[in-house]
Amino acid sequence: MLTSLRSLLIGLWLLIVLSAGATGFLFVSFYRETASVQAGRAQDRLASACRGIADRYTFFASGWRGPWPRRTDEELRQQLTNVVQLALAHSPEIEGGIWREAEGSLGYAFPTYEGTGPKTDLPAAEQPTIGEVNAAAATAGKPAMVERRGRSQILLLHACPLGGATDTGLTGWTMTRIAAGAEPAYNRLMIGFAVLAATVLGSALWLGWLLVAWSRRIARLEADLAAGHDADLPHLSPTGLPELDRLVHALNASGERLSEARRRAAGAERLAAVGRLVAGVAHEVRNPVAAMRLKAENALAAADEQRRISALGFILDQIARLDRLLRDLLTMSQPREPKAETVDLARFLAGIVVAFGDRADASQVSLIDRLDPAAGVGSPPSFDAGEIGRIVENLVGNALRHTPAGGRVELSATRRGENLVIAVRDDGPGVPSQIRERLFEPFVTGHPEGTGLGLAIAREIAGVHHATLRLLPSDRGAHFEIELPWRHRPS
């Protein structure tokens, strides 16, 4: 199966889009996997840091006696802050503190903060989440984890109960942030996406322009080629695309060579046709002239008056034959201009059958006419009944001449679209294969007594009437068909 260039280009465009989508999917998957791995590692570090706070607090509270005060004073808060400071001193990018559900934050530290000074204020934006994770750890009596994913960062919090008999509502917590949109990996991903998007968009626009440009230019070439009304190739204008223009130049050069070859072939064909015509005319003229000369010489040498009169009659018959030959030649070279008229097809066919009725009876051949009912619907046809009748009479006469006794000749008429089709079919031996290709040329005949001009004249008349005369393949006899416009078109 052949594939068009347009289909190949569309397929290439789809492959680019699919590959871009697959690449983007891989980029996103890889980035998400990287972020998830980072979050997992951060959770482990947060849990370890929270255990460090718990251990430091256990050591701090090891000598504690009595219940925890109702309100924690500033001195105790500072001591708890120092506990957190020591616990997180070696945990980069992790902040944390000690939380009591009844009072909130009791101590906060971010010892690895890289700002201009130590960070001592609890982050206000994250305070509700800090309270949430500490409440979950205090209620469950076991560590709790909270993860909040934002557009630019991932917030991770971990809380764990603090041991000791002084107050079971104390929890330690740790927190860190993972940049999700500002780190180098994210920037590289965005740059890659931008390059990929620009590449896909550029490829799509370029391929789209290429498809449109090629389609328009190829459509114009098709229109120029279809506009040619003769056998020569039309001259094609350049398209502006080098690849197509090479094809255009090659077609134009081929058209010029073809036109030149057709001119030479037409000239040779005309010379050959003239030669065949001259040979046929010479043959048709020489035989009667030779016969007349022989009869005249015999008449001059004979003393019998009756023999001389017979010779003169023969000579007159041959002169009449030559006259018919010349008249047929003139008819073939100078066909009469059609005179169209409305024709009753039934009467037209019946008239031809009546004209050849006696001849058909003498030959013991059935001559019948058949009119297709569809041809009688609507307005009647219009054509030159006299000239078209000459063609049909020639075909019927030839059919009767070649049909054996007991055979049948059928004359029919039907409508084919906007055309009238008249057919003549017989039960004879058919047209010999050796003359089938040259049947409509002058002096080509399958009958010993024929001049071979009848079908040539018929084809010339058909051409003047915008009609087509053809011999159709047939399983029996000969099948001729003349197709002409239902309504005559003036030239």
UniProtKB/TrEMBL annotation:
Q: Where this protein primarily resides, as one coarse class? A: membrane
Spell out the reaction equation it catalyses. ATP + protein L-histidine = ADP + protein N-phospho-L-histidine
Gene Ontology CC: one annotated term:
membrane
> Could you tell me the EC number(s) of this protein?
2.7.13.3
What keywords sit in the KW lines?
Answer: Kinase, Membrane, Phosphoprotein, Transferase, Transmembrane, Transmembrane helix
Domain (Histidine kinase) ranges: 280-488
Q: Where are the transmembrane segments?
A: 189-212
Q: Which InterPro entries match?
A: HATPase_C_sf, HATPase_dom, His_kinase_dom, HisK_dim/P_dom, HisK_dim/P_sf, Sig_transdc_His_kin-like_C, TCS_sensor_his_kinase
Gene Ontology molecular function, alphabetical? phosphorelay sensor kinase activity
Q: Could you tell me which species this protein originates from?
A: Bosea lupini
Iron as UniProt keyword? no
The organism's superkingdom is given as Bacteria
Per its record, how is this protein called by name? histidine kinase
List the subcellular locations. Answer: Membrane
Q: Which Pfam families match?
A: HATPase_c, HisKA
